[in-house]
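User: Here's a chain of 508 residues. Predict its fold as tokens.
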Amino acid sequence: MWSRKAKAIFGLPADADITHDLFVSLLQPGDVSTYRTAWAAALDPAGTGTYTLEYRIRRANDGHERWIDSTATVEFDKGRPIRVVGTLRDVTDEKNAALRSNRTERGKTAFATSPGFGELPVTPLPAGPDAVPANVLAFETASGIHPVADLFRTALQSLPLHIAVLDRAGTVVLVNKPWTDSAGYTGDRLSATMTVGANFRDVCRQSTTSTADAERVLSGIEGVLNGTLPLFEMEYACQDPVEQQWYTMTAAPLAASGGAIVSHDCITDRKRADRAVQASEVLFRATFDTAAVGMAHLTTDRRLLRANSQLCRLLGYDHSELCAMSTFQQIVHPDDRDIGVAHVEMMRAGGADTCRWQQRLLRKDGLVVWVMTGLGAVRQPSGALDYLVASVEDVSSLKLAEQRQDTLLHELAHRGKNLLSVIQAIANCSLSGERTLKDAKTVLIGRLQALATSYDTLTKVAFDGVLLDVILRNELRSFGGRVHIAGPPVKLTDKATQTIALIAHELA
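Assistant: Prediction complete.
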């Protein structure tokens, strides 16, 4: 016997006839073996007669995958299973929250209440090695060993949820042990007085002045009891002696009696996971948006998913314009596109998880900017490439400095060769003719000193030309005031400076 909520969780219509084969067909294939093992162990009279299990299903109506947390208790008669009572709950949201925050430890095991849970399917397994006695069905049984009321009470007490049953007037007629032990899990005077015989609505009315949530609870319970609400749910926080806890209260109508069933479920772990995810997202967003370099997320086909403001400023595009591009390659210089494609393909093949290279990007205004691009691979659990994290740093000034350095080195090498040629010519000229070795040495040294003086003068003006009077004054300064230089300023080129300096030296 399945409840309506149990059928809804599995995506089945309320009037669906549930068989064990149908139930197994909705399990994910990878979880069938685990389920059968747990089911067989629970049916073993020598065992505990219980199981708690998480498994995945594919909903019958939409095919969506959901995580289910279930528990079951088997009752035996002379070693034979006669009935099974259990609960199940959709825990997909908690699973996803835990996954997003990278929490590997399972949260607290919790079980939902009506209408958040339903009895587990207990129709017989098919004939064969897995077969069980045909009378293991549900509450309806011909054994007469336990009346339904006793069975219901037994099942209620075995559930870990905190449950109270109300009659149509709102009086508490039944609570289970977890409810009694925890005083309803509400953590205030409201729950402490919510015992068997108390009227739920009266207690709420008396507490509305001291408990902020009591008015909401009163409105919800009255709506369920008078039939105007098909379901009431509310999240609330309470402070226990150690730390703040979070709970979900659920109230659902009991169709037959006109009363209601109220449950409290601890969702503290889920709340902590959600807050951890939110904190992580805030930290990520702050890091991403305030990074000193351009940052972006790319799909495996190099399409932009998101970009930070620094990258937008660097390229001159709005965020929407960048993300609307079919591929990031649109703004890469045509001559540099192949290397980026090669790096991505290498990462897709698993050859690397990170890479860096220089390339040119095209700004919106048409200018070219040199950047250092870094890529990091984010992979799926299977190892397949999921998406890429890119960093883009403007290195245009560095690239310009490198180009200037290359030019300087080239010019230095050129000037060095020219200087050696001049020295060679001076040496040949000085050592030729009828001069003695001593005279030739004196002439050579004098000419080299004149050349050195001209180079020193050129260096001081960064080889930007020298005035003629500066060259003449350098060569004639040994004559003191006996020589007077006059005339308009004449600026000499680098090559002319060397030649005129040597001529002035010879004439002096």
